[in-house]
Every structure is written in C-alpha cells, then in structure tokens.
Fold this protein.
Amino acid sequence: MRALKFQCVTCYDVLTRPVVRAAHVHADASSWAEGLRPAVQAEWLCDCYRLRVHDDAHYGAGYLHGPSHPAATPTSVLQDFFVFCKLAVANRLVPRDWQWGVFLQHASEALPYA
C-alpha cells in the first residue's frame, strides 16, 4: 500500500465533525504523554491504533477494518484512522499541546504497514 496523504477536504471534514465524549473518561486521560517527546507520542498513539485493528481482527469476532480489511484502500484506511483520532480527542486522550503535524507524518509512514 502506498503512503497515505492527509491533505484533503474529506479528511478535514471527518476530523471536525462533532463527536459525543464518553461520560466515564478520567479527566487526566492524556497523562500517558507526559515526559515523552512529540515523535515518541506520535509513535505510541499510532501503535495504539495498529493494536486496536489487530485485536479487533483476532479477538473481536473477526471484525476487519482499516488496514486489516481485505478490500482496504488508502482512503478507507485513512477514514478508519480518523475515526480513531476523533474518538481519542473526544475522550481527552490527546494532550492539548498535541503536535498533529508530527503525528500525521508518522502515521503516513507507519499505517501502510499496520
């Protein structure tokens, strides 16, 4: 699969649509990122997505999505990844000073190998 591109109106629309935040989320859910460089934070959160895809495929009754779906395209992987990102933001897992540029650059290199 070729590298993913994150500059499109559709991707922006997916990221900016409102999401309802889960009521049970701890107020300090982004504390995992404290003390980590932005590049390490980006790698960590991308790995969380990749592990989620893997776990859903193997332990989620064969739920295939993102790069594990047999008919995956760069666009479908991108859309699935952005759903993950929106949920992470909505549930306050992403720190306020999150560096999206660093994160999306890492994701564009890592996700094709998920």
Notes: The chain has four helices and no strands. Residues 66 and 76 are 6 Å apart (CA to CA). Residues 36-113 form one domain. The radius of gyration is 14 Å.
